[in-house]
Amino acid sequence: METIVTPIGEGIVYYNDLYEWAKSFGDDPGDPDFDALSYMEGDPDMIRCDGNKLCFIAPVVNGKRYVLTHDEVDATEREVLTRFFGEDYRRYFEALPCDWKAFDGAGRAIAYRSGSGYVYSIWGYTAQR
User: Fold this and answer.
1) C-alpha Rg value of the chain to the nearest Å
2) Which residues contact 121 (CB under 8 A, 6 or more apart)?
3) Whose CA is closest to 12, among 32, 31, 36, 47?
4) What is the pTM assigned to this prediction?
5) What is the pLDDT of residues 80-114, one digit of tens each?
């Protein structure tokens, strides 16, 4: 499955699939009061990369996974997020203890609950450049 990483506001405007996805919730992305970040309210998934933390959600729309971040990502963050959703993700990630201490102590990690439940799984990024 193709994975596209994009900031949520820009992605909804740029990708027609995401524009229609937002409309399916009764929202109008063309409205000046539209707040794309409202989709991240609650407990979004998170990436920690070299001291930076970003929130994200990852809906699948029309056969593509869109990883929607609350802010711009750099090349390393994009790589980590793309590999996390790849078929061979276990080649790049190892399960860490399910606690925030493990997440905060990792140089690069993902806290993932896939938009449901109360417990995050913590995945440490182990790939070497």
Assistant:
1) 15
2) 95, 98, 111, 112, 113
3) 36
4) 0.90
5) 999 999 988 989 999 999 989 999 999 999 999 87
Under the phi-then-psi rule, with left for phi > 0, alpha for psi from -120 to 50, and beta for the rest, what region is 62?
left
Task: Report the distance separating Cα 53 and Cα 129, nearest Å.
Answer: 20
Q: Which residues contact 42 (CB under 8 A, 6 or more apart)?
A: none
Cβ neighbour number for residue 69 with a 10 Å cutoff: 25
Q: Which residues, other chains included, contact 57 with Cβ-Cβ below 8 Å and sequence gap of 6+?
A: 8, 39, 40, 44, 45, 67, 68, 115
Look-up: residue for tokens 């699939």? 17
